Fold this sequence. Notes:
The chain is an alpha+beta fold. Helices cover 65% and strands 7% of the residues. Strand 4 and strand 5 (468-475) form a beta hairpin. Helix 4 (74-83) packs antiparallel against helix 5 (91-103) and helix 4 (74-83) packs parallel to helix 6. It is rod-shaped and about 145 Å long. The protein starts with a helix and ends with a strand.
Amino acid sequence: xxxxxxxxxxxxxxxxxxxxxxxxxxxxxxxxxxxxxxxxxxxxxxxxxxxxxxxxxxxxxxxxxxxxxxxxxxxxxxxxxxxxxxxxxxxxxxxxxxxxxxxxxxxxxxxxxxxxxxxxxxxxxxxxxxxxxxxxxxxxxxxxxxxxxxxxxxxxxxxxxxxxxxxxxxxxxxxxxxxxxxxxxxxxxxxxxxxxxxxxxxxxxxxxxxxxxxxxxxxxxxxxxxxxxxxxxxxxxxxxxxxxxxxxxxxxxxxxxxxxxxxxxxxxxxxxxxxxxxxxxxxxxxxxxxxxxxxxxxxxxxxxxxxxxxxxxxxxxxxxxxxxxxxxxxxxxxxxxxxxxxxxxxxxxxxxxxxxxxxxxxxxxxxxxxxxxxxxxxxxxxxxxxxxxxxxxxxxxxxxxxxxxxxxxxxxxxxxxxxxxxxxxxxxxxxxxxxxxxxxxxxxxxxxxxxxxxxxxxxxxxxxxxxxxxxxxxxx
Length: 476
């Protein structure tokens, strides 16, 4: 196994200038061998120079021990080996010194200059020694042998260590470059994994928000009308039995429709695409859990993909429920197309606003609808958003301003569609007849999110007359 650059640097636990202990042990062994060699050659040097043998041995041992600092000062080692070449010492030190110098990070011109000096010194010393041997009769070769032996010995003592050192230095630099690249790639992959996890978490958060918004828009309106009719039923149960029976029937129908909408929404969520390929809720939950706990880029991307599946399912389910909410129990508008169409779901459209307003009117609200401009078709998302804004605004009137007269205005303009729902100040009612509907404060926020997603503008707030106004403009 290979280690990265950071691990390689952290592994530097050797003494002094050595990165590892084994490097220190190797250099100590080479220095000991070089000292022994130079010490043995110091005996002959002492005889030739007329010096006492112990001095020659000590000189050789000291000179050979310089090899211990070859990693710290390679130039000094090579210079010492060149200096003791005339004494025919330091052959091992010269070889190892040239190798270390060539493998180091020093400029190549320094390596070339010292290698040339070592080559010249070895050439001269070998030439002189060989010529002396020929003249003394120790060597019986011809005149050609002296230059041949000199050149061959000089090349053999200089070229191999230099070439090997250059190769090993290049190889080490390549490995360091690969380690740095591996570190960089590892950091990039870690950043990508973190960003993918953030995107997956954002997708899951958006999914939860959309599920809450769709559930609120689809169910809140229907349940609000049920509560209003139930309150009216309680008020007139003894005074007008026939009207009470009619209101009870309306409450029952709306309750059944609300249950049907919830079943359809949950069914689409479970099936994943509304047509085929059923996925159980437990497996979906396990996939989301595994994607959120994973830290790798691939698992995070899978989490984002899993999180994205229910979004379309929620939109499809909401569209089914909204179509039923707009069309009533007998309406066939906005239903799911056949299986041959791929299970595509069409949501509510602006043509169903009349039925939406009629449902509120049946619940006792005085509401007036006015349409300005030439009616035309818009993109499905635009019509759904406009319908939802009006629907939620009417629901809020039922909740907070029961009995107030309400105006619904729709304007078809050149490049946009505008809608406004405004109610007057609600009349004072007795405590016994007041209907208080629960409110979570999510209706206005959901409308604003829907309009902003299409690049529109949403404004809501109280009016000077004590009522409340909701306005939205969506680019067409």
